[in-house]
């Protein structure tokens, strides 16, 4: 388990190197063992073909020389001339030298292998003993042959030398057999070593094969466990993800929680979840941006309408200011007339008729003033209505309309004061007209009532001064309202510009959200195979509000709201 766990923790390169290294080590071990066994077999074969064969040939040569010496010695007993004896004796001596040389070679070979040459040395000792026994008999037989005692030579050969010869030959035969046996044993050992080497190489080859199969299976199993499947399948899944196909299922092995394919499947699931959320959010953003664009479009129209309404209010206030200024001028004229009437009244009866005419003129002027005051009263009422509308619009404007609300309230107060003053003036003018009418009727009694007329004229003068003062204040207030309305109109125009820019930004946001939705639609997600249809609103067009013609529906809605607020 520990080895498998440690092997599992190795990298793929390390695993492959480890597996190939194990195979190389096994192959090297097989090569070394095969080399050693082949060297051993070669040594045994060299021993068989070299030392053992040489010893066997030496033993056979020694036996052959002994046999040849015995044959030559028999020939010595058979020949009759001395020259023939010498020839045979020379042959015997030559064979004896060959025997000695061969024996020395054999001793040298036996000396090089003292551990296994014990039996051979024992036989060779026996051979030397038999040689020592035979050598004097051979010499004696040669001497008797040279002396002409052939019968004695024959007796020695047949009686004394033959048993020794047989033992000698038997020992040499046993030495030859022993060497042959050693050759057979060496051959068997070499054959056994060859078989052992072959079997060892087969076993090691089988072990190497089994180990190689086990290592390859272990590496393959670990690689497949880490990859989670065939690399071609993993590459195909990655290719599908790269092409945007996130709807396909990934086939995982049971219990696979850490492989590359599991990581790819987890990445595909996470990407599918992310793309699904991005797609839904993109569609939500697109819908919201569409709503924002429409709302900004409506707001832009209403802002333009508000600016036009403010311009109309400013124009009305300008007209009202001109009317008030005209009223102030008329009040000044009336004041001058009142002063003149007072001077005329002081003249007494001399100018009664003139007073009567002036009173008629005053009566006419009073009627005119009544008409003007009626106009002023109507203007004040309209100003009050406009101030109420301005206050409502300021309340709808929120924080930016607070200053305008204050000004609208002040304008309303001034209009109420103007209306009150106009009603008072109207009442006074009506009263003055009645008095003038009475003065006309009582012109004959001017002398008696002149003092009363003078007092009334004085009162009229004071009232006209008050009217002039109030009219001046009203004119200044209206000028301030006019200036404020102009400023509010400028701010409203700026707001309209900002609203247009906001609407353009909303349109840009909508287009970008649609582009993002198109990009996200490239991914195929299970359950959302095709993107939801996005609304494609018409481009937002801004219309400037005008004062002429039929007002837009939004302005009607705004006015209806204002009326409901006023009625409430």
From TrEMBL:
<keyword id="KW-1133">Transmembrane helix</keyword>
<dbReference type="InterPro" id="IPR051310">
    <property type="entry name" value="MCP_chemotaxis"/>
</dbReference>
<dbReference type="InterPro" id="IPR004089">
    <property type="entry name" value="MCPsignal_dom"/>
</dbReference>
<feature type="domain" description="Methyl-accepting transducer">
    <location>
        <begin position="281"/>
        <end position="510"/>
    </location>
</feature>
<dbReference type="GO" id="GO:0006935">
    <property type="term" value="P:chemotaxis"/>
</dbReference>
<comment type="similarity">
    <text>Belongs to the methyl-accepting chemotaxis (MCP) protein family.</text>
</comment>
<dbReference type="InterPro" id="IPR024478">
    <property type="entry name" value="HlyB_4HB_MCP"/>
</dbReference>
<protein>
    <submittedName>
        <fullName>Methyl-accepting chemotaxis sensory transducer</fullName>
    </submittedName>
</protein>
<dbReference type="GO" id="GO:0007165">
    <property type="term" value="P:signal transduction"/>
</dbReference>
<dbReference type="Pfam" id="PF12729">
    <property type="entry name" value="4HB_MCP_1"/>
</dbReference>
<dbReference type="GO" id="GO:0004888">
    <property type="term" value="F:transmembrane signaling receptor activity"/>
</dbReference>
<dbReference type="Pfam" id="PF00015">
    <property type="entry name" value="MCPsignal"/>
</dbReference>
<feature type="transmembrane region" description="Helical">
    <location>
        <begin position="201"/>
        <end position="219"/>
    </location>
</feature>
<keyword id="KW-0472">Membrane</keyword>
<keyword id="KW-0488">Methylation</keyword>
<keyword id="KW-0812">Transmembrane</keyword>
<feature type="transmembrane region" description="Helical">
    <location>
        <begin position="20"/>
        <end position="39"/>
    </location>
</feature>
<dbReference type="GO" id="GO:0005886">
    <property type="term" value="C:plasma membrane"/>
</dbReference>
<keyword id="KW-0807">Transducer</keyword>
<dbReference type="InterPro" id="IPR004090">
    <property type="entry name" value="Chemotax_Me-accpt_rcpt"/>
</dbReference>
<dbReference type="InterPro" id="IPR047347">
    <property type="entry name" value="YvaQ-like_sensor"/>
</dbReference>
């Amino acid at each position: 388990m520990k080895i498998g766990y440690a092997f599992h923790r190795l990298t793929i390169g390390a695993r492959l190197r480890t597996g190939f290294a194990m195979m190389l080590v096994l192959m090297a071990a097989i090569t070394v063992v095969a080399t050693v066994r082949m060297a051993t077999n070669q040594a045994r074969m060299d021993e068989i073909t070299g030392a053992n064969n040489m010893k066997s040939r030496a033993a056979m040569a020694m036996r052959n020389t002994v046999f040849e010496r015995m044959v030559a010695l028999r020939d010595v007993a058979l020949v009759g001339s001395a020259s023939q004896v010498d020839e045979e004796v020379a042959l015997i001596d030559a064979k004896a030298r060959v025997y000695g040389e061969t024996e020395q070679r054999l001793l040298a070979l036996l000396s090089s292998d003292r551990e296994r040459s014990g039996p051979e040395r024992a036989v060779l000792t026996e051979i030397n003993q038999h040689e020592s026994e035979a050598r004097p008999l051979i010499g004696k037989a040669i001497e008797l042959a040279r002396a002409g005692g052939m019968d004695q030579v024959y007796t020695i050969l047949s009686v004394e030398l033959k048993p020794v010869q047989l033992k000698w030959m038997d020992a040499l035969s046993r030495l030859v057999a022993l060497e042959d046996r050693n050759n057979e044993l060496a051959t068997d050992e070499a054959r056994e070593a060859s078989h052992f080497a072959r079997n060892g190489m087969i076993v090691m080859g089988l072990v190497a094969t089994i180990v190689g199969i086990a290592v390859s299976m272990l590496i393959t199993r670990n690689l497949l466990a880490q990859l989670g499947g065939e690399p071609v399948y993993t590459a195909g899944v990655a290719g599908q993800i790269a092409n945007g196909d996130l709807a396909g299922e990934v086939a995982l092995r049971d219990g696979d929680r850490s492989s590359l394919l599991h990581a790819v499947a987890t990445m595909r699931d996470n990407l599918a979840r992310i793309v699904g959320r991005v797609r839904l959010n993109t569609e939500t953003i697109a819908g919201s941006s569409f709503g924002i664009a429409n709302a900004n479009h409506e707001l832009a129209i209403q802002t333009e309408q508000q600016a036009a309404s403010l311009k109309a209010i400013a124009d009305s206030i300008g007209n009202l200011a001109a009317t008030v200024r005209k009223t102030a001028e008329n009040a000044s004229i009336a004041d001058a007339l009142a002063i003149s009437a007072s001077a005329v009244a002081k003249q007494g009866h001399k100018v009664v008729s003139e007073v009567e005419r002036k009173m008629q003129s005053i009566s006419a002027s009073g009627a005119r003033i009544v008409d003007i005051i009626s106009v002023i009263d109507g203007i004040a009422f309209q100003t009050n209505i406009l101030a109420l509308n301005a206050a409502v619009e300021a309340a709808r404007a929120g924080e930016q309309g607070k200053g305008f609300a204050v000004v609208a309230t002040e304008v309303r107060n001034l209009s109420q004061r103007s209306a009150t003053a106009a009603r008072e003036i109207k009442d006074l003018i009506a009263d003055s007209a009645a008095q003038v009418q009475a003065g006309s009727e009582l012109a004959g009694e001017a002398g008696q009532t002149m003092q009363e007329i003078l007092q009334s004229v004085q009162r009229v003068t004071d009232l006209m001064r008050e009217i002039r003062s109030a009219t001046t204040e009203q004119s200044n207030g209206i000028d301030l309202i006019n200036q404020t309305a102009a400023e509010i109109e400028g701010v409203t125009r700026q707001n309209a510009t900002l609203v247009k820019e906001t609407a353009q930004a909303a349109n840009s946001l909508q287009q970008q959200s649609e582009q993002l939705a198109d990009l996200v639609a490239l991914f195929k997600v299970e359950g959302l195979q095709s993107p939801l249809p996005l609304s494609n609103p018409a481009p937002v067009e801004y219309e400037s509000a005008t004062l002429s013609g039929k007002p837009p529906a939004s302005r009607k809605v705004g006015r209806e709201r204002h009326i409901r607020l006023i009625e409430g």
